[in-house]
Amino acid sequence: MTTPFRTTRRIEFRDTDAAGIAHFSVFFLLMEQVEHEFLRSRGLSVVSRDEQGPISWPRVSSRCDFRSAVRFEDVLDVELRIARIGDKSVTYAVAFSHQGRAVAEGEITSVCCRMQEHGPPLSITIPASIRERLTTPA
User: Fold this and answer.
1) What is the pLDDT along the chain (138 residues), one digit of tens a residue?
2) For the chain, how many helices (H) and strands (E)?
3) Which of 11, 39, 42, 104 falls 20 to 30 Å from 91 in CA-CA distance?
4) Which residues contact 44 (CB under 8 A, 6 or more apart)?
5) Which residues contact 47 (CB under 8 A, 6 or more apart)?
6) Are the beta carbons of 64 and 108 closer than 8 angstroms?
């Protein structure tokens, strides 16, 4: 994906700690929300279905590095881009900023899986139709 997906998120009161600063854990939730919004913008979902059954994208890795604090009601600019797309997985890079100031950078890696009624998810090759929607600019 050459063009980053951009959106915004507001820091809510529930997102802050006793010092009034956004708690580190909220950034993992925000990354997941932005991933879902990106998928919807491409006509996809984190849970879909084809003729063989349900497909989903369990996370296998996530990390976030913090640069500066943000507080209740700050509006973050969020940029998501595909850092890597493999045969079975996608790694998203997510950058958060506030008024031009870097706040945090993170990554999420999700694996394309066939969901089974009984048993664990099975990793599968990303279907061509999904890969095309992920990599073709909206």
Assistant:
1) 568 999 999 999 999 999 999 999 999 999 999 999 999 999 999 999 999 999 999 999 999 999 999 999 999 999 999 999 999 999 999 999 999 999 999 999 999 999 988 989 999 999 999 999 999 876
2) 2, 9
3) 11
4) 130, 133, 134
5) 54, 55, 56, 115
6) no
SS3 for 122? strand
* Residue 64, both tokens: 């976030």
Residue with token string 């994208």: 57
- pTM, entire model: 0.93
For residues 80 and 110, what is the distance between their CA atoms, to the nearest angstrom?
Answer: 14
Q: Which residue has the tokens 């976030």?
A: 64
* Region of residue 53 (phi > 0: left; psi between -120 and 50: alpha; otherwise: beta): left
- The pair of three-digit structure tokens given for residue 17, joined into one six-digit string: 């700690």
**What domains, with CATH codes, occur in the chain?**
5-135 (3.10.129.10)
